[in-house]
Write a structure and sequence with these properties.
The protein has ten helices and twelve strands. It is α+β, with helices and mostly antiparallel strands. Strand 1, helix 1 and strand 2 form a beta-alpha-beta unit. Helix 3 packs parallel to helix 6 and helix 6 packs across helix 9. The chain is globular, with a radius of gyration of 21 Å.
């Protein structure tokens, strides 16, 4: 198909490892490429895939559909405008990714080091990890605690708590799992000019300091006082077009030269965060970024070689996955 000359573009929606091999072949064939998340399983493969995009006339995009959500677009505008001032703390609890044993039995590639390369960080959370770096940039250090098969009979991670540090002193905590229900999706950002919370998709709650916290701290004549605040609810309008929005943008980029919402080259960042969290757990240590792609690739190969899992998809495990993506 890729060599036929009958198609101009391809959308790669295969199990994760094949994103790299098929993606490279498609780019070498001169096709425009849209690849599902994650763009690759590990950073080294991301770099190989991105390097294959030598012809910049070819459109190369990634399926980060949550970048289309009006709530995150507005939040990014708020952060970039400086309305929050310097960001000091980020906490994101995203535990709405509940999955049953039947889900993991639906394919022999699922939840294995060889078939998937990871668990919740590689399958569900590329969305939130992409948003994390899109909103806040990449941290300088990651210390994570991944639990492997805590809630399911699988060899990969299904529960993660990660701590991150930035060069400017900001810190972040990221918590996720596929074993909790009803779960939460709460993002809290504390900055010099106030606090923002996002829970759901309908509004952003901004508790805004009347003055800079740092300036108030230095000028105050009393010990137990604080600046006044304004409680603001920023309404969110418009629908999230999700996958259709990214696909339409991909077509517009090909036909009309419009800028991409999610260039595939940016997909390396969410993969690097996921890899760093796993590598931190593997080595029981803090991991400095940028992560060595070669070191993580070697560690992943050891996991594959030592695996004793011989998984076969359960009979009748095929099902409608249209309900698995949680839009909140």
């Amino acid at each position: 198909m890729m060599k036929s000359g009958d198609i101009e573009a391809i959308f790669i929606c295969t199990p994760h490892y094949a994103h790299t091999t098929i993606g490279i072949k498609a780019l070498e064939a001169g096709l425009h490429v849209l690849v599902e998340k994650p763009i690759s399983v590990h950073k080294a493969d991301c770099e190989r895939l991105i390097a294959a995009h030598a012809n910049k006339d070819q459109v190369f995009a990634a399926m980060f559909n949550m970048r289309c959500a009006p709530v995150y677009i507005k939040l990014r505008e708020l952060i970039k405008s400086g309305a929050l001032g310097k960001i000091d703390r980020i906490n994101w609890v995203t535990t709405e990714w509940f999955r049953t044993d039947q889900y993991y039995a639906s394919g022999d590639w699922r939840a294995t080091w060889k078939g998937e390369g990871g668990g919740v960080l590689l399958n569900q959370c590329p969305h939130h990890l992409d948003l994390w770096q899109w909103l806040f940039g990449m941290p300088d250090m990651v210390r994570a605690f991944c639990k492997f098969g805590r809630f399911h009979d699988i060899e990969v991670e299904d529960a993660v708590t990660a701590y991150m540090e930035y060069a400017d002193g900001a810190t972040g905590v990221f918590i996720t799992t596929t074993g909790e229900t009803p779960g939460s999706n709460r993002l809290e950002i504390a900055g010099d000019r106030g606090k923002v919370t996002v829970e759901g998709t309908e509004c952003i709650r901004f508790t805004r300091n009347e003055t800079s916290a740092r300036e108030f701290c230095q000028a105050a004549e009393l010990g137990l006082t604080r600046p006044g605040v304004w409680n603001i609810e920023i309404p969110i309008t418009g629908e999230n077009p999700q996958h259709a929005g990214i696909t339409a943008n991909f077509a517009d980029a090909i036909l009309e030269g419009k800028p991409l919402i999610a260039p595939a080259a940016e997909g390396v960042h969410s993969v690097e965060l996921a890899n760093a969290m796993l590598y931190s757990t593997f080595t029981d240590s803090s991991v400095k970024l940028p992560l060595s792609g070669a070191d993580f690739e070697a560690a992943l190969k050891k996991k594959i070689e030592s695996s004793t899992v011989k998984k076969v998809a359960a009979a009748g495990a095929g099902q409608d996955f249209s309900t698995t993506f949680n839009v909140s």
